[in-house]
Amino acid sequence: MPKRRPTSADVAAMAHVSRTTVSFVLNERAGVKIPDDTRRRVLDAAATLGYHPNSVARQLARGASRSLGLVLRQSPEQVANDGLLAETLRGLANAAREADHRVLLETLVPGEGSYANLVRSGRTDGLIVSGPRYDDEELVQLVRDGFPVVIQGTLPGLDVPSVDIDNEAGARLAVEHLLALGHRRIACITNAPLAYTAASERLTGYREALAAAGVAEEPALIAEGAFDAQSGHRAVAEILARTTPDALFVASDVVAIGAMAGLREAGLSVPRDISVVGFDAIPLAAYLDPPLTTISLPAYDLGVTAGRAILDRIAGRPVAGRTLLPTELIVRASTAPRHGAVRWPV
Amino acid sequence: MPKRRPTSADVAAMAHVSRTTVSFVLNERAGVKIPDDTRRRVLDAAATLGYHPNSVARQLARGASRSLGLVLRQSPEQVANDGLLAETLRGLANAAREADHRVLLETLVPGEGSYANLVRSGRTDGLIVSGPRYDDEELVQLVRDGFPVVIQGTLPGLDVPSVDIDNEAGARLAVEHLLALGHRRIACITNAPLAYTAASERLTGYREALAAAGVAEEPALIAEGAFDAQSGHRAVAEILARTTPDALFVASDVVAIGAMAGLREAGLSVPRDISVVGFDAIPLAAYLDPPLTTISLPAYDLGVTAGRAILDRIAGRPVAGRTLLPTELIVRASTAPRHGAVRWPV
DNA sequence: ACGCGTTACTGACGCGCGTTACTCGCGTGG
DNA sequence: CCACGCGAGTAACGCGCGTCAGTAACGCGT
Questions:
Q1: Cα B232–Cα B235–Cα B236 angle in degrees, nearest 5
Q2: Can you tell me the distance from the alpha carbon of B70 to that of B101, in angstroms, rounded to the nearest whole number?
Q3: Any idea which nucleotide's C1' is nearest the CA of B121?
Q4: Contact between chains at B230 and A97 (C-beta distance less than 8 A)
């Protein structure tokens, strides 16, 4: 059987000091002077015993767990198709580590499952809720009780700090690019059902760009996607059955890949017959045929920013009510000037 | 200021019983009879106070943290290009939840960073190490000390339970498919440098299939990929500069997408001029042009299996030394019989 | 009336650590 | 000579809970 793990009492005994002194030395407590001689004895004892403070006990004594809860409210399909999620996670974990915190993961089977106990049981000091839904009563209650929460995504009507991509601006960027190429009949396939805030924001950006250019909106040009490539395939068929666009903005690269497959089947060539812009800038987008013009978003930074926000919130530091991270247009071969159109000056 | 959180002592006071009784009732302790009357008083008091047991204190008292540590040793590029990672994570989290455990995430900046303290500090009861490297001294030490560890991936030479995809069998499946179509000059692009066990295993599968069919191996037909599409693009150029294959097995869909882009640029048409098989069955593979024949692997199950394994290990139940999850061939349009070849009977 | 088992509880300790208030010895200025 | 301050360190409590050993009351058979 493995020997019992050494405790601070063992270290104290070996160094011939009290447990208190051990604690002072190991925590480098400010304002307490410890002679070098004593300090060294303690440090040596700790090293030879292989002492590692029990962090559970430390959490209890301090009253803080030094860990962040990450709640993934996305549906399984959403997770499976979100190629950037891992990057965001990495950003969050790194932000947490910088502040000597840990990340506790909580996934939810939709329709069931509660996560509030995560914080109510003192296991985490704060929560990051990713992909919140409107009907999340649990979340509302938690916020009302004053627990530190940061939302990654958007949830209007709740007074909570949130961090998100600037979806509207990104969509505008995409559509403005198409407009600048001379396109006017610009279709739009959303990245998800409009109940998802990101989807409706991107659609809003699309509309704003059209309105700003004085182009009338046409309902026949709009269709809903749903996370995966298949939905893009279906949506493009819907649109082509109704009308004939000369450009297509798909608010998700993954959905766009399905849409491009649909266009191929319809005998349309990209970008000769129709220009396509995606959204998300997944790594693969550059290697599609043709390489996809898209909107890049800082997935890693999103995680880092969310992490810093909740850490600030926990520490009582001021936190911006809403942080929007900038997007960027990446022009590739899937977009070209409208056939016969003169390219506008930029 | 928010009121102090209620403790079990508060519940005890309100129910006019001792803290011990509260503990017995709330934990439904077997072997202890509590009259319904008393039980109800305790339950009611807990409910009206909004009592939630402090899990940190509970961890300390019980000596177990009921949480699993997940260590991601993959490099950032690897994470960014691993579209299945999120699925695996979801599987693990769900397996953990079923057993009332939590998942603690630990990422590592390569070259630095230790994670052993995660378990040495008592924060987790066991560790799942994903993507271990040969030179992981920390891991070796941990295993030697008898800490519960399960490896997700492969690490030969260390006596630790591990869970992985059956990479060899999957690669064989892919190559056998190409052989059955009549191809003989089958090239191979690995999914990663060969220092990664998954990469060398898949290459081994490729070789075994060739050997079993009596086809001589040709070094000129083999090139190394490195996680991303770009590396596939480069690797295919290397191969085409040396020789002319009639089929190509790329041990990763993501790399295959880059490879297919390279084939296009070289003026080769898939599958007319060359058949291509990928590996991983990322959701997008079905929507490529042409849809990619690939090997599907149970990403979600991988997470579940790893989770169950470490839970078994923690509980002292017997654990299989090595679990290999089966793969499956998904035939799509990127593979076709060799030009002029008679299709073999299956 | 007495022993004895059973029911229904409770007192007190321990988990490992942080932290406050306190002690003790030793100059030192008055 | 004494009060005082200061450096060096410590005893003891608290964090919130699980749990063992124990106790008081009660019924029941003889």
A1: 85
A2: 12
A3: C16
A4: no
Q: Which residues of B172-193 are buried (b: 16+ CB within 10 A; e: fewer)?
A: bbbbbbbbebbbbbbbbbbbbe
Contact call for residues A247 and A185 (beta carbons, < 8 A)? yes
B220 residue type, one letter: A
Strand A162-165: give its sheet, edge to edge: A322-325, A162-165, A149-152, A126-130, A67-72, A102-107, B102-107, B67-72, B126-130, B149-152, B162-165, B322-325
Q: In this complex, which residue's CA is closest to the C1' atom of nucleotide D8?
A: A34
Nucleotide nearest to B61 (CA to C1'): C15
pTM exceeds 0.85:
yes
Give dist(CA A16, CA A41) in Å, integer: 8
Report which residue is nearest nucleotide C18 when distances run from CA to C1'. Answer: A61
Helix (H, G, I), strand (E, B) or coil at A164: strand
- How far apart are alpha carbons B103 and B95 in whole angstroms? 10
- In order along its 346 residues, chain B shows pLDDT tens digits of 456 789 999 999 999 999 999 999 999 988 888 999 999 999 999 999 999 999 999 999 999 999 999 999 888 888 888 888 889 999 999 999 999 999 999 887 666 667 888 888 999 999 999 988 777 888 988 999 889 999 999 888 889 999 999 999 999 999 999 999 999 999 999 999 998 889 999 999 999 999 999 999 999 999 999 999 999 999 999 999 999 999 999 999 999 999 999 999 999 999 999 999 999 999 889 999 899 999 999 999 999 999 999 999 999 899 999 999 999 999 999 999 987 554 444 4
Cis peptide before B345 (omega within 30 of 0): no
Chain A with chain B: Cβ pairs closer than 8 A: 160
Distance B14 CA to C4 C1' (A): 35
List chain B residues with CB under 8 Å of A120.
Answer: 52
By the 8 A CB rule, do B201 and B171 touch? yes
Q: Are the C-beta atoms of A252 and A226 separated by less than 8 Å?
A: no
CA of B21 to C1' of D22 (A): 15
